[in-house]
Design brief:
Helices cover about 35% and strands about 30% of the residues. It is α+β, with helices and mostly antiparallel strands. The strands form 3 sheets. It has an 11-stranded mixed β-sheet with strand order 2-5-6-8-17-9-14-13-12-11-10. It has a 4-stranded antiparallel β-sheet with strand order 1-3-4-7, sandwiched between helices. The protein has a two-stranded antiparallel ribbon with strand order 15-16.
């Protein structure tokens, strides 16, 4: 039924046009975003055709004999438009496994798009994997998501810090000054976790130049000094906090609370969800209780980010 084609740069416009109209895609799947780290991952994305019509696409890369969708992105999975049906996807996964076997792959690692990012329901792939691939859950991460129309009451300590921000004259500015925020972020991650941001300043500025409406920076100022900030990804009906950090002064004066008050109740109040991201370590086996409690204090509740795996040889 399907003709399966490996992505090549000549397919970029076709790929991007499909992603823009899909019901479960975000701008992370546009090639201008995916390809910024092409040197780190051997791309093996796939396009599925029925006749001459592009049916669906699968962002993926290869790692030896592992076919992964997609370890370089927060999530991956089959990207589908409104015309794709369950029966189609079941057959697609049968033919996908035949293709992977012929290509010498032995194992699949698969991260579907979490449901909160779906413009319309789009979990046909989960059913097909269960039935035809005998997929098993490899990893489950707890993401924290706010339903923006519910206006749940903030926890007492967040309300207190927001009051401090107002009293101390903290200014929240959507100024896109990534270069002013990045030292705060790098210092915060280094001190707390001994880590660095996934993106360097140069990389995030490159991505910002490619997606100026989707990547936005909010900084909190005391006087003329940045004391905290959040880098947001605007993903359709979801606002995702990609990076957030304060220095000691910013924590004391409620910089985070001031920013969240602005985006939740003013600038992005019309969106459906605010996604704080995950709060786990060791593939979900450890919960950072302090971090998730901080997020839940704004009214967030859990949505799971799952990763599945299966052996190509055992699929039907």
């Amino acid at each position: 039924m399907f003709t399966i084609k490996r992505y090549s740069p000549q397919d970029r416009q076709l790929w991007d046009d499909y992603v823009r109209r899909a019901r479960n895609a975000t701008f992370l799947f546009l090639r201008g975003y995916m390809d910024y780290h092409a040197d780190r991952f051997q791309d093996h994305s796939l396009l599925f055709f029925v006749g001459r019509k592009l049916h669906s696409v699968l962002p993926a890369h290869e790692d030896g004999t592992i076919f992964a969708s997609h370890m370089g992105l927060t999530y991956g999975g089959l990207i589908m438009d409104v015309d794709v049906t369950t029966a189609d996807v079941v057959q697609l996964f049968v033919e996908l496994n035949d293709y992977l076997s012929q290509q010498g792959f032995t194992r699949v690692v698969y991260k579907p798009v979490p449901w909160v990012y779906h413009r319309l329901p789009a979990e046909e792939d989960l059913y097909a994997m269960f039935w035809k691939c005998k997929a098993r859950l490899l990893r489950r991460m707890s993401g924290t998501v706010i339903a923006l129309d519910q206006h749940l009451t903030w926890r007492k300590d967040h309300r207190r810090r927001l009051k401090s921000a107002l009293q101390m004259g903290v200014r929240v500015v959507a100024d896109d000054r990534l270069e002013a925020f990045w030292p705060v972020l790098e210092e915060n991650l280094n001190v707390r976790f001994g880590a660095r941001p996934v993106h360097s300043l140069e990389e995030i500025m490159l991505l910002k130049s490619r997606f100026p409406q989707q990547i936005v920076q909010y900084n909190a100022y005391v006087g003329d000094v940045v004391v905290g900030g959040i880098t947001f990804y605007v993903m359709g009906h979801v606002l995702h906090g990609q990076y957030s950090a304060t220095n000691d002064e910013g924590k004391m004066c409620g910089a985070m609370e001031a920013i969240y008050q602005r985006v939740m109740y003013d600038d992005f109040a019309s969106l459906r969800f605010l996604d704080f991201g995950t709060s786990n370590e060791q593939g979900g086996l450890v919960l950072n209780e302090g971090l998730i409690a901080h997020k839940e204090g704004y009214g967030g509740r859990t949505v799971c980010y799952d990763t599945y795996e299966w052996e190509v040889a055992t699929a039907i």
